[in-house]
Protein 1
Amino acid sequence: MPLTCLRRSTIDAAKANKRLIWPNSDSRHDDLIGGIVERAVLISFASPASPDEESDFNNWYEQTHVDQVRAAIPEITQVTRYRQVLDDGGSGSNRYITVFQMDIADVGLAADALRSARESGALDQTATIDREVNPPVLVWAELLSQS
């Protein structure tokens, strides 16, 4: 099976609203150093509308969209973006993957919060995102196991 390769693009850590917990504990402590637990993820696949709009797309995504998604889902602990550099056929791609890690027991609540934010207009739209050839795809997942 061919492997899809990704290049990491990080979001400014200062934007993070991380909640820390002690290992093997459910109590949260903002002032204690412990492990960050992500019990769910939102994985977003999106592409710029055209190569000419790639820079504007990335600026909107990192400077506007990520903050608005964080505001809608305060349980987000970390956001990491990737650029797909190879697809199954081995050619380059301008598809971007964003992983929103969340400390939430019910991923459905996070999905409802994001849907409400979108319907209320709290999420700005952009003409720089591809909605036709490679439209955005959202994948919601809950933690099954960790090793």
Protein 2
Amino acid sequence: MKRKKKYSEFLDNKRVVLVGPSGHLKGSNRGKLIDAYDVVVKMNVGYVVPDKLINDYGRRLDVYYCSVSTYFFRNNRLFNCFDRNKNIIWMIGTGLHRGNLAKVRDIKGSEGTQFLNVDQKIYKKAASDLRKGPSTGIIVIMDLLQYNIKKLYITGITFFDQKYLKRRKKYYYSQYCNRSVGNYPIMVHDTKRELRLFKKLYSSDKRIKCDKMLRKILLTGDRSE
């Protein structure tokens, strides 16, 4: 609980930006806008921003949310995360693999980072609402909103663009990994339900602001960035 209190104090009254890996940010030149926020949050493979895309996705990474599944312990992925991002202040475990977070402390470069797991109540509520395992993205949003943040700006996230799902590969892919996302996230998570859940959060919490692409998916033109 002490760590959660410290994290709460860290986020208190801060303008927070959550940056996802959607390809629609490529060429956006939004990196300076992203880096100007009080707290920059990225997740899972989102730590791997090539130098040529920093102008679009930003350089900073203050809070890193990660599922800490075994995937991230293979091929030095977490070592590369801390090696590439020297100033990660908090790393937050998001899901069923919460026990793995303790192993991260042994990774070189993580010495200055504080660690915390998302409250299990958040995960269980999301799983109950979605009737399926929640993605890291929706968990991050729900977790951040429980704190006294001033604003949550969400960019680079499309919930796999439900309306244009057949055309998703054309512009929704991880620019970080330089590959199409394929169908894997669709099979593991119910992204339609996640989008509906996010719409409810968006309509009830005025702190949430979205980039143009996500507003288009939400079919709303209000609430400027």
